[in-house]
Structure formats: structure tokens, C-alpha cells
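Researcher: Quick one. two chains, 588 residues in total.
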Amino acid sequence: MISLRAMKAALKQQSIHFFVDPQWIIPSIIAPFIFTTVTLFLFRHAGGDLLLYAVLGGGVLGMWGNTIHSSSWSIGYDRMNGTLESIMVTPAPLSSVVFGRCLWNAFLGLLNALAVFIVAHFAFAIDVSVRDPLGFVVALFLTLLSLAVLGMIFGAFYVVTRASSAFFQMLEFPIYVLSGAVFPLVILPEWTRPFSYALPATWGAEALKISAFTGYDSLSIGLPGALGLTALTTIVYLLISFQLFTYLEKRAKVNGTLVRY
Amino acid sequence: MNNGNETVISVKDLTKVYPAATRLLGDGGKKKLAVDRVDFEVRRGEIFGLLGPNGAGKTTTIKMLSTLLIPTSGKATVLGLDVVKDAVKLRPRINLVSGGERGLYFRLTGRQNLDFFSDMYRVPRERKKAKVQELLDQVGLGDAADIRVENYSRGMKQRLHLARGLVNDPEMLFLDEPTSGLDPEIARETRTLIRELSRKGMTIMLTTHYMFEADELCDRLAIISDGRIKALGSPFSMKESVRNDTVIEVEARDIGEVQRQGLAGLPGVSAVSMEFLEGRQLARMVVEEAGSLIPKVAALLEGRKVISIRVDQPTLEDAYIKMVNGK
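Model:
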């Protein structure tokens, strides 16, 4: 069951939290600035696509962590506040609430990316023009949304235990590697491919690169193909997360673990 | 205010066992029986209380009835709906308010909190703004509506909790220790508000470990201890149950658990409660007949610094002690 009203309310709530809670300034504004600055400093002598790749890898893709964390932390935050039960006693499905927050997190990632490009352009005078700007923005938003949904799957485990974060932080870096965001997929061992192809972020990263670099299409699927596969895998993950929420909510109600923090 | 005999909560053999926690290292502890084959009914318009010591099973019971916990066995219906099978249909018609500092979004204002929960309950959009303002005014937070909750006092937070519990105009309101930790004045205000809600026809079920609160608010109450219901009835009938008993009250300076157990073991003593005051202790024994017992009490406490031994009439609290701790 999905509640559009709960999603909208959660998105609004998350945006208010962003503006009133100073702790979000660090991951959303300061961290992107540092990421971009360090990356651009390291690659300052490179030119052309390599520099843009550095901006993408170190800057934009460096924001993935923020999207995953803020989405997976969504339930953790309610647990900490003691509001998890207050939500679960309402008719609104918890998964809709979390998804609404994920939409805001993905949108925020888009704003972060804009900040990265502004820093690169104005502070380092780098030409950050991409081949297909509209395709790039769509690819970026879809990628961030897919990561938010991945964060939602992680976050579902917060319903049953407060100890989720340590486990998922361990999984985070392998996801960056497997998705081809940090290293090109072709240099990874063959046996890792099925894992890579199962990740929406892989297709999102591919769409980003296709729309950014002239002549890039390593998997020969084109921008529509990459965008389509990002959307498809994201929907699959979203459906999995909804099912997971249903299962884990039931488990938490059997075990009585909703209020422990 | 009891509006009639319509049953709105029906509980039969309700049991909750918390499974042993799963841990990577260690055995994770044991299963815990929190509620053990409980039976009771609540009628429309009643204020029904669950009274008991900490860990008695009160909160577990109220959480099962408000769909936050799944019972291990037994059956419970609220407003004619099964709390497990019909949870989705039931939730719009009930609400739960827990006591304490937590359970609100501290970075948001009171109004933003209520706005969010109104959306969770799908309060009609055209009604929402007015409804939120109405609730804020009702709980006396109209002037503080746009202040962040982190700046609220404990009492203001509790009033906001209550307002949150009313956003969907519930037919059945569950209150889990609504005055716990509040200062006396705020607690009194909260009780007044609960009575007002009851007067308007709302059915209320609350948990408390304050005897006087149960006495003041509840039409009927169940005394629960170790997961079992020890007594069920009106506060008056509970007092009546100790009407023929007497209380021996001993005030001393150096008695403890050993002496309490000794007193509890005397023939004719139904229950003993012990209160630790500053530099002295007060033991109250519920007994059938005081005259013959006083010499035995004095003998048992020989060598202790006894200040006074006196005979008293039993109170509702003595009835509660007898039901919870009695032989």
C-alpha cells in the first residue's frame, strides 16, 4: 500500500529538518566543497574528459554517501526521537513516509551536484560543460533516487535493530566500486559483473558518463538504455524495499524492538 | 463517562512472550513472558485503567491493543476489529499517546508536528489548518504553536503529545502513563483534560502506576502484576475488598528487606509494603486482626530502633499492595 499524502508530508518534513537543523550543513554543503576542492587540486594538471571524470567521480559521485546515509538514517532518526511508534500507530505506511524523505534526499543530492559544478567552474576555472546537459540532469536525479532507494532498503533494518548502521557502512564502499563510479567496470574481475549489473547505481553511473562524455558508451546501450535500466532497477529495488518494510515491521512487532535505542 | 454497555475492547486469553534477543556473541538472554492470559472488556465512554508496578505488562497490553505489538496468543478486538488481522482498518479510529519527553520532532514547531501527523491520518485538507489550530488552543499551546518543540517545557511537550493523539478524533484513545514524571500542577491539568475528553464521549484506556490517579480518573480498572490481572472492578469495589482488614504501621530507623520478609511471613499478614523515607522506614502490613499480631510484630523487631507501631484503616493503596504483593 502506498500513500501519496504521507510521501508528500514526509518530503516536506525532511525539507524543514534540513533548513532548521545545522548538522545537515556539514554533509550537504561543507563536505561537497571539500570533496570537490581536493579532487580538483589532485587533477588540476589533467585536462579534458579526465578532469570532468574527476569532477564526476570525486565530486558528484562523492555525494552518494550523503544520499545513502540520510535515507538509511531516516528510520534511525525516528528511533532516536521516539517517533517510530507514533508513525506506526497511524494508518500511513512507514515505507511511504521513508520514500517521501528519500525523494527529498535525492533532490538535495541534485543541489549538491550543482554546488560541485559551481565550485569547479568559478573557483578552479574548469570547463565543466557536458555533452547532453538535460540527459545528465535526468541521469543524475535517477542515480540519486536509486541510491536513496538503496538507502531505504538499508534503513528498513533500523525498524528491527538500532545496530544497522555499522553493517551498512561496511557495504557502502563495495557498492561504489561495483557500480563503476570509482573505477571503470572493465578493470574489475569478470565474476563481479552480475553484482554490478544488479545495482541501479551501475546503470546510473553509465548514464551519467554517456551524457557527459562525447563518444562514451562502454556497454553499448546508449543513454535511453542506461536511463531505462536505472529506472527499472530502481523500481525493482523500491518494490523490494516495500516488501522488506512489511516483513520487518511485522518482525519488530513480534519481537517488541520498536522503541529500543 | 460511561455511555452504555457497548463493548469496545474485548480481550480474551491475551498473551505476549518476547522472544530471546538474537546476538552475534552470547546467548542473547531468555524469553520473557510479559502478559499472561489476560481477559477484560472495556465499554464505550469508559475511562478504563491498567494499574500496576513497573514491568507488570501494562504498556505491552496497551501496545498490543493499539496494533504496535503482535500478541503471541489469545484474541483482542477494538471497536469490533481484530488488532492483528484488521490493524489497517483500526488505526484511523484509534490513537496512542505515550508519556515522556520523546515521541515528538524536536526541531519542528508544535504546529509543524501536528501538521505532519494530520497528514499521516489523512485529516481532510480543507479542515487540517483549522483542526491543528483548534487542538493547539485546546491544550493551551496556541501562543507557543510556532516555537520549536526543543524549547518546550516538559508539560508543554506532554500537552502536545495529547494534541497529537487527538488529530484524528479517535473513538478510542490509549494513554500510556500520561502523567509520568510531570510536576503535580501539570499532572493535574493533564488529568482535567482527560476527564474533558471522556465527558465528550471518548473511550479512554490508560496505564498508570499512581493509585490516586486511577482512583480519580477511572470508571473501572484492572490491577496487573507479573503479566496477570489480579483484580478488576471499580476503584470503590477495590477499596471495599479491604474494608474488613486492618493495617499495622511500623515506623523504625533500621529495618530493611530481611525484616520486611519476616513481617510478611507472620500468620494473618496479607501483604507488606515498605517505604524508605529520609533516615527511617515505614512498613505497612495489611492484616485481618491487629490486636493479636502487634506483640508478634514487636517481638520480631526486638533490638531494632522502632519509633512507633500504630493501627490504621486500609486505603486503596493498601488494597493495591494486597492484590499485587499479597499471599
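The domain at 7-239 of chain B is CATH 3.40.50.300 (Rossmann fold).
Researcher: Thanks, that's what I needed.
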